[in-house]
Design a protein that fits this description.
The complex is a heterotrimer of chains A (281), B (376) and C (186). Chain A is an alpha/beta fold and 281 residues long. Helices cover 35% and strands 17% of the residues of chain A. An 8-stranded mixed β-sheet of chain A has the order 2-1-3-4-6-5-8-7, with helices on both faces. Chain C has helices at 17-29, 80-86, 118-126, 132-144, 149-159, 165-183, and strands at residues 5-12, 35-40, 50-58, 72-77, 90-99, 112-116. Classes of the chains: A alpha/beta (281), B alpha/beta (376), C alpha/beta (186). Residues 61, 103-105, 132, 134-136, 143 of chain A line the site of magnesium ion.
């Protein structure tokens, strides 16, 4: 697409999209959520989207606080239900450009059912899952993406539940664009978001994110930078390299990049094309 | 004249009323005995530029309904007991964020799955206290098919006017029975639309406390504002300022309290000289009216107070009734919900007795008559 | 007419008892100038078990308060089960119309019983057992006089699809005529 091959989007004017008077944000020092937001704002700028059309909806959690800081139409809802509020908004006003900010707990636990049904409908919205493998907001309980063995305040002996693969889930449920990025690979993430924003249908981007305050501290990753290093070195491998690398280098790693992209009829368009057309004949 | 008269089912009349009021959005999940409302809306809305969506559950339905309303469309959802329970958290969200919407609850017996096909009036208290926290509650209780249409229109009007969700409660008997009704022509009934801001988008405050009820801008039309279920200040953003929290929490109650006469509505029969008062809603109030008429034939001074607005509770009317009657009989299809409210208001001024039934059968006129005769 | 006139249609699921109730209510309140309220037993019962619909009729402008039957003026029973379960609300001097092949154990009471092989007539005379409810409507119209023949005919015809107009018309006429003869014996 028309993504400029910029080397670094350094002097980027974030202020034009932020509600500056609502800053500072509530996130802890070293939290990955702000980095994700910056990549998103650059992607929005790449796509030259209008603030009046942009609508950001979230559930509850640290990540779900994102809408409060951006100068769009913004809706901070209840835990797990952002998808459903957003579905109502989008169907009622298809001109809105929907972005959902949700956490791994918000999207995969309490909102899991809404998540899969949103993907199934293929309604036009970008879902960003800030995936930090922990319930940050409530103080570090394990989430549906916490790895087996990890420590959380409700898994002091190590988590025994196998984690969800968010991307596999999204794909299986019918999302037509599925990607994974990280809060470390910020430019790649910007490119992924840019592609996702250009996609028609449900786009899910899981962002491997860091909660140094809870996940980090409880799991012997002593600081924000150590967590980032972990994401960089041990956590993921690019989809472009995964087939070229020897198995021992990819084992246990999450694959980054655009993992799935297909063209399928979008919900609101189908509504007009099939239902309204028949009803008004 | 004859052309406008139609034999309609209660649930059909509800959908008809919603459409008359200008409803353009419906999100719901099927549940007996409310499903006909969804079925009709799914056919009618797409014909009229509206949107219908069947969501994955009632939580999602309530959430989508609020979303539809924030996009500027008058929005409706309909359900019954278990679904009403699931909607509660989002319903509270609509109360605090002041998003208009209408929720129909065709009550069924409970708890749990209960008795899906039998009449019940066991969600009277849930309609008031179902969601957590203090919050405004408006709930209407139509008892006739024509009234379901009229009250659904009124529900939308109150909701738009006061920027708050409005619940319409009726039981399976009224929901499924058919009566001849007159379908109003455009203009016959008042239709109120929410106030929209005319200020500069820069100056817009969605919870401006200069107004008791601030205008609400639809999303996507240049007013970029924030909506949150956290306690917020005038501009819609979260606040920890206890004074602000207090002001806002009291304001959303006050907008109802200050307008109680506009919101409350009662139907009274034979109350002028009544010594035995009956307080009833829905199908039960029809049994009560039957008994009152029978009592009057025997020269027993019985009368009926039938609220069409059950929340806010008709304290004034019940107080007047308590002044003049020796007893107020409260028949209801539950084990005692409204009766305690009547006792609260009567405050010892007269005796208050309930008639309660939870076997899935209506309260028969004979049951009420027996008690009327006992007190006569 | 008294304050209210109560009719109950009973049979088994699939015999069109609810439709009969709706048509009766429309004959009275839409095609006639009376008031009416129609209700039905709802739920698993209506899926094959005993099924019933009730219509309360009142003069124009008279409110129908309690919408269910209290003292029935006329009840139809197309099956034994329905008859046994529901006949007890029929009032003194009321009419109990039964299908004489189906209801063999005829309840006793101070009401009048009218017997006719309704379903057999539908099958053999009209050729479609489905119109048993329409024959019944014709009979009840004639037996009770609560609506006129014309009002009933208009109500029936407004509810049936075009290709079945004639069929239903003959069923209704059959009902009128049979009841007219049987009425003399009452
Ligand atoms: C119905 C309900 N249950 C529980 C909570 C408490 N709660 C708030 S945020 C949260 C978890 C958030 O975790 P996640 O979505 O991963 O977001 P993060 O804070 O990690 O960004 C929970 C359990 C709530 N707000 N509402
Ligand atoms: S608790 Fe964790 S997720 Fe929440 S702001 Fe702090 S670091 Fe971020
Ligand atoms: Mg999390």
């Amino acid at each position: 697409m028309a993504v400029a091959k910029q080397k670094l989007s350094v002097p980027f004017d974030y202020d034009k999209y932020l509600r500056k008077d609502k800053l500072p944000h509530i996130w802890c020092p070293g939290c990955g959520h702000g980095i994700v937001l910056k990549s998103l704002l650059r992607a929005i700028d790449n796509k030259e989207l209008s603030k009046n059309d942009l609508c950001m909806v979230s559930g509850i959690g640290c990540s779900s606080r994102t809408p409060g800081y951006v100068d769009f139409n913004t809706l901070h809802t209840i835990h797990g239900r952002a998808f459903s509020f957003a579905t109502g908004l989008k169907l009622a006003k298809p001109s809105l450009k929907m972005i959902i900010a949700t956490g791994d707990g918000d999207a995969m636990a309490i909102g899991g059912n809404h998540f899969i049904h949103t993907c199934r409908r293929n309604i036009d919205m970008l879902i960003i899952v800030y995936s930090n493998a922990i319930y940050g907001m409530t103080g570090g309980q394990f989430s549906p993406t916490t790895p087996i063995g990890s420590i959380a305040t409700t898994s002091r002996y190590g988590n025994v539940e196998p984690p969800f693969d968010i991307c596999e889930m999204a794909k299986a449920a019918g999302a037509t664009f599925v990607a994974r990025g990280t809060a470390y690979h910020t430019q790649e993430l910007e490119r992924t978001f840019t592609e996702a924003l250009g996609h028609k249908g449900t786009a899910v981007v899981e962002v491997i994110d860091s909660c140094p305050i809870y996940f980090g501290r409880m799991n012997k990753q002593r600081g924000a930078s150590e967590m980032m290093e972990n994401i960089e070195k041990n956590g993921t491998v690019s989809v472009k390299q995964v087939d070229k690398l020897p198995a021992e280098k990819t084992e246990g790693k999450l694959v980054r990049g655009i993992l799935h992209r297909v063209e399928k009829p979008e919900y609101c368009e189908q509504y007009d094309k099939l239902i309204v057309a028949k009803a008004t004949k | 004249m004859a052309a406008k008269k139609k034999l309609m089912q209660g649930n059909e009349a509800c959908a008809e009323g919603a459409l008359y009021a200008g409803c353009k959005f419906y999100a719901g999940y099927p549940i007996t005995p409310s499903t006909e409302v969804a079925e009709i809306m799914s056919v009618e809305l797409p014909k009229r530029g509206g949107k219908f969506i069947q969501m994955e559950d009632e939580i999602a339905s309530m959430a989508a309904t609020i979303g539809g309303s924030l996009a500027g469309l008058k929005s409706l959802t309909a359900t019954s007991g278990p679904g009403f329970s699931l909607k509660q958290e989002a319903l509270g969200y609509a109360c605090l964020t002041e998003v208009p919407c209408v929720v129909i609850n065709v009550m069924r017996g409970g708890p749990s799955t209960g008795y899906p096909t039998g009449p019940s009036q066991s969600d009277i208290m849930q309609a008031k206290w179902g969601t957590h926290g203090d919050h405004p509650a408006i709930a209407l209780t139509p008892a006739y098919v024509q009234e379901i249409l009229d009250e659904t229109v009124r529900a939308f009007n109150l909701s738009e006017k006061y920027r708050t969700p409005v619940v319409v409660l009726y039981d399976e008997i009224v929901g499924h029975m058919r009566e001849p009704i007159t379908i109003p022509e455009p203009g016959d009934l008042e239709v109120i639309d929410r106030a929209k801001p005319d200020c500069d988008p820069e100056d817009y405050k969605p919870y401006d406390d200069k107004h008791l009820i601030a205008p609400l801008a639809p999303f996507g039309e240049g007013y970029r504002f924030h909506v949150t279920g956290l306690n917020h200040k005038e501009d819609g953003f979260p606040t920890n300022d206890s004074e602000m929290i207090d002001i806002n929490n009291r304001r959303i109650m006050q907008k109802i309290d200050d307008n109680i006469d506009d919101i409350c509505k009662n139907d009274e029969s034979n109350l002028e000289d009544a010594e035995i008062g009956i307080f009833a809603v829905g199908s039960t109030s029809r049994s009560a009216k039957f008994s009152v008429n029978a009592a009057r034939k025997k020269s027993i001074k019985a009368g009926l107070l039938r609220p069409l607005t059950i929340w806010p509770f008709p304290d004034k009317a019940v107080g007047e009734l308590a002044e003049k009657c020796k007893v107020i009989i409260v028949p209801e299809l539950n084990l005692g919900q409204m009766v305690n409210e009547v006792k609260r208001v009567a405050a010892g001024r007269c005796e208050v007795v309930g008639i309660h039934r939870v076997d899935g059968e209506p309260i028969k006129p004979a049951q009420i008559t027996e008690l009327i005769e006992k007190y006569s | 007419m008294a304050d209210r006139y109560e009719i109950r249609f009973s049979g088994s699921g699939g015999q069109g008892m609810i439709l009969a109730g709706i048509i009766m209510a429309e004959a009275a309140s839409i095609f006639g100038d009376k008031n009416a309220a129609q209700s039905q037993s709802y739920g698993p019962e209506s899926r094959g078990g005993a099924s019933r619909a009730e219509v309360i009729i009142a003069d124009a402008g008279v409110d129908i308060d309690y919408p269910k039957a209290t003292a029935i003026d006329c009840m139809l029973a197309l099956t034994q089960t329905a008859c046994t379960s529901y006949y007890s609300d029929v009032k003194k001097d009321g009419i109990l119309l039964i299908d004489e092949d189906e209801v063999t154990d005829i309840p006793e009471g101070d009401f009048k019983v009218v017997k006719y092989p309704i379903l057999r007539a539908a099958r053999e005379d009209i050729g479609k057992s489905i119109v048993g409810n329409i024959i019944s409507l014709g009979m009840i119209t004639e037996l009770t006089g609560i609506v006129s023949r014309e009002e009933m005919e208009n109500a029936v015809l407004s509810r049936v699809p075009k290709p079945f107009l004639e069929l239903n018309k003959s069923a209704l006429t059959l009902g009128f005529e049979k009841a007219s003869a049987l009425k003399k014996e009452l």
